[in-house]
Amino acid sequence: MRSINDCYTLSNGVKIPCIGFGTYNAKGGDNLAINRTAIEAGYRYFDTASLYETERVLGQAVRESGIPREEFFIVSKLWIDERGYQEAREAFARTLDRLQMDYLDLYLIHWPRGKEGDCDWKEKDLDTWRALEELYQSGKVRGIGLSNFLPHHTENILKNCTVKPVVDQLEIHPGYTQEAAVRYCFEHDIRVQAWSPLGRSAMLDHPVLKEYAEKYGKTVAQICLRFLLQKGIIPLVKSSAMERMKQNQDIFDFELTAEDMSIINNMPQNTWLGEHPDFAIPKKKSNFAQ
Ligand SMILES: NC(=O)c1ccc[n+]([C@@H]2O[C@H](COP(=O)([O-])OP(=O)(O)OC[C@H]3O[C@@H](n4cnc5c(N)ncnc54)[C@H](OP(=O)(O)O)[C@@H]3O)[C@@H](O)[C@H]2O)c1
Question: Whole-model pTM above 0.85?
Answer without folding.
Answer: yes
